[in-house]
Design a protein that fits this description.
Elements: E1 2-6, E2 12-15, E3 19-23, E4 41-49, E5 54-60, E6 64-71, E7 73-78, E8 83-87, E9 90-95, E10 100-106, E11 113-120, E12 130-135, E13 145-150, E14 158-159, E15 165-171, E16 176-180, E17 186-194, E18 197-199, E19 202-204, E20 209-213, E21 217-222, E22 227-235
Parallel strand pairs: 13-14
Antiparallel strand pairs: 1-20, 2-3, 3-4, 4-11, 5-10, 6-9, 6-11, 7-8, 7-10, 9-12, 13-15, 15-22, 16-21, 17-20, 17-22, 18-19, 18-21
Protein name: Pirin
Family: Belongs to the pirin family.
Cofactor: Fe cation
Length: about 240
Amino acid sequence: MKNVLHKADSRGKSENDWLKSEKTFSFGDYYDPERIQFGALRVLNDDTVEAGRGFGVHPHDNMEIISIPLEGCLEHEDSLGNKVTIKSGEIQVMSAGTGVMHSEFSKNEEGLVKFLQIWIYPNKRNVVPRYDQITLDKTKSKNKFQQILSPNTDDEGVWIYQDAWFHLGNFENNIETHYQIKKKGNGIYAFIIKGSAEIGGHKLEERDGFGVWDISDVNIKITSENTEILLMEVPMEIN
């Protein structure tokens, strides 16, 4: 088993009058040659956007972009004709493919918004851009992991062009569970949204990240009430 631990206070940080961003991997003005990516997981940004402010129109291509709101409402508009709002309890995905333009703003009346911005390298380049979002059934993540993303169009959650699976779980204290790797050669990156847990012998607190690979499964012990964990299974090698 191989692993890497990224403590919350070790992340790259940037802040201005409308955005506070904490970056697990190198992004924008934060660069660490030891923290470029975890396999196909390229970006994990923990963003807080002030009310009525946001990211103006900007381009993406050949990347799978996932947004998971944690608090507040995020307005999204793109060149595919989508103009929508996403909020806590939902997940959004864009396959940027040959290219897409989009913007993201915190809704004025809702105050600030907090969300996770995640980028995954695709396994197929130059696809036709696509957009999707769904509302999650939170009862399915009570003391267990609920699948929220996969490579399969007919499976639970949204889908992307990559052999990756995301799961969310909301746990009470002292729950013990495990996760089984779905594809040989994949690794798991766990992000503690809130609470605390012990994974692979490491004690993890709120906003810590822990990656593990060369395994078939991993045991997880919850160590505080109301713990929420995002598990991201991704290929460790990309084409």
